[in-house]
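Board notes (copied after class):
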Amino acid sequence: MNDGQSTGSNDRLFAEAISCTRGGRTLFRDLTFKLAPGQAGLLTGPNGVGKSSLLRLLAGLLQPSAGSCTVPMAKALCDDRLALNEQLPFEQALRFWARLDGRVQADVAAAMARAGLAHLAEVPVRYFSTGQRQRARLARTYLTDARLWLLDEPANGLDTDSVAQLGTALQSHLDDGGIILAASHIPLPIPFDFTLKLEPLEDLEACL
């Protein structure tokens, strides 16, 4: 493979010796891992080690400073961006986003139900609580046809019932042949095929 990011019809996620440098600082170096359809990976480690940057890199929003990666063409990143018009009722905001993203509007009702937000369809997004806003972000992910879900702290702000509901949605995606790579400080209720713990590079280099 060539240096940089390669995307195509490949249904697997494969990262080979990728490194990421931002603002002159190397966040991580020489990471290699792979996920096949139906598999999930977990990213752990303290804040600032590059978990979010790794997800954004795999989403195509950043370029690796070294190495290469192959990802499914259909992918969705769920991070701290709400990306919904907060002045609109939730259902209308989702439909507007679906039209921008080219998704089928009929999927909106199912996505709201999967996120446990169907009862808030007519409530403007600006009134949502922290947990409801997190579930709204997840609803955007459920609305896509992406095979690869890149999830940045998907359980943040969720209560116990909502975490269980999230686990059901994640497992359903895996059962359908999807792939998940999630960064989380909170235990997620699905089995993971590997856990990748990122460490501060300065700490590792100090031990050498």
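Comment from the instructor: The chain has two domains: 1-74+146-208, 81-144. The CA atoms of residues 49 and 200 lie 5 Å apart.
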